[in-house]
Amino acid sequence: MDVGDGAVRERFRGRRVEADDSCWQRSRRRGKTRGVPTAEERRIVFEAKPWFEELQRKKETRKKQGEGQDVWMDVLEYSRNVCYVMGRVDDPASPDDAQIGVEEDMILCRRAVWELVEMIYVDRSSAHGFVAEGMVQWLQRNTILLQAGEEEADMQLGNLAFLLKNNPVPETQLEYWQCLQRLTALGWTTLVVEALGKHSAWVQWQHEDQQARPQVSVLEAVTLLLRTMPRYKTSSLQNMLGRSFEGMDGLMHFRKGWLQQCQQLIGNHELWAECGGATAVGLLKILAILAGDEETLEGCTCSWLELFAARLLHVYPNLKAFGELGALASSCMKIKGGGEGELDRMLMAILERDTQELVNLSSNLLGPWMMAHITELLTDPAAASAPLSSSEVADFGSDQIEYYRVLFAMSTASDPSMWKVAVAYLAWCPVHGARATESLFQRLPLHQCEPRTIQQALYCCDQLGLRTTADDICRRAGSHAWQQGHAGTAVYWFQRAGDEKRLRCLGRKLLERVSGGPEGCTINEAEFTKLTLMLETLEATGNIPQGDLSFLVGYHSLTRSLKQWKEVKWTLRNAQCTEDQEAAASQLHILNLGMRDRILDLIQGGKAPRRFWFSILFMVVPLMESRDAVFNVQDTQALVDCIEELTPETVLHPPPPIPSDDRLHLLRGTVRLALVRNMARSFTHSLVGT
Question: pTM score, two decimals?
Fold first, then answer.
């Protein structure tokens, strides 16, 4: 990385955090007024969900296998994946690729807290509990968000690249050395070495200027010490400048000799006298930082967090997460100030492993999504006490982990496009999940949903065993479809809900719509045609509801068969060859049997309302007058008995305002005559057959 090309300027953009108007406070105010997640926040919600579900499945599997104590490796993997979703970059030596906007402040805050919780609570695999290097890397990854120092210091960091690029003698500027000292304290030794490479003494030495020899000698010595600085190797830091160690014993042994070299160089007064000037003063302070001089560390850092990280790196590299982190952080606060802000209090709670205080602060500051996910990091199955999973929330009836999952699910359910996310999280709430899911589906705006969305909701109900809720969704969808005039869709949903009452009501409304004539005892063919597709679908599926819908399906089947019967009769009369006649006769016989069964089912079976009996029989008079004797003696007698039960009042209800006895008499006479003639014909056929 070439510092002169703007790496430092990009990494430290000079976004100073004021005590009275921090990015944290801006994010909170914006979150309260906005109420709607940004596109980036929605992306995080959707991309983090699979990792959450995978962790829950692994925990369930380990629990069944009796391996509950070994779940922390799964939690660490889950934590890293979710953190990457929030935009974590493991190489803190490289600048961010994209400019950070104001809308990302809250995401950066959440990511910073998440990373620190992971380091203190979860990450015990590679660092063996040593947090110095991890703390330095964490601060480097979150420098833009967390730097909170003096305005002059921030300006120094922001102007370093400009200074190196435009000033051929940068060492004459005080900001140059102040910036290098701060970078050294924070562990950014790569940038320090590159910035030292811009010292004008190197150019003078290349031109064989002997006066630059003392400065070059000191620069070479300091650069060598920076390049051999002992660093503890962690899984997230791969390309570090210095000598890396995988074991703390080896690091401390090497560090002892390395510190002696630093002290020897500091004590070489003759060399420093020859060097002289601002270069000697600046490099001596860099060496003092490397040697862990407390006073120098306090002077070159700009916040308690920077001082805390610098002390860990240069004074207490072997301090563990279970050590005196809280005491060290409190000491840094007393020196640099801080601790009153919300973010400072939260960071202190993490460092002190005060889990309940952290939960209380986070629940007010980080939002429901963060709380639903970060609680997985705060629950240690191997710990003697696990307050999140063992203590119940007052008036809730379950532990805090489930409480925050339900809270996040309910906040997500308010967005029609994210209700599936809410259901996925409620599925892992053993106490209140089912009831909360029922409440969610009851509030689901079905009038805004596509049929595919409703089907997905029903699938979720089926997976969770919420049969009653599924029926309620179907009823609501059916009622909405009926209000929109989609009768077929309404019938489908009511059938799926098993709601016979609504199906009968819908069938009655449809029958009223298609009833024609002054007495309503005939079918209006124009209106009836509009129901053809729905009736054919019901007949094809075989799932025909009882009541008036059953009559409409049967009537439609009868009219279709009658039309086919007339066409086959015409074909039979005009057939030119024996084969055509036989085929038509066979088809006519099948139609005769089918129509006979449908008519008897409609009238004798009681499916057709009585006021339609005469019109149905009148419609099939050609069938009864055919020579085929479709109805036998018993069938004909049964139909005669049925129409004998009818009176004008039962057929014409309510009584017509105009005289209709003559028309009714003609209708009944025609039907009765056809039945008598059919009975005689069927009786004759039976005698001939005998």
Answer: 0.72
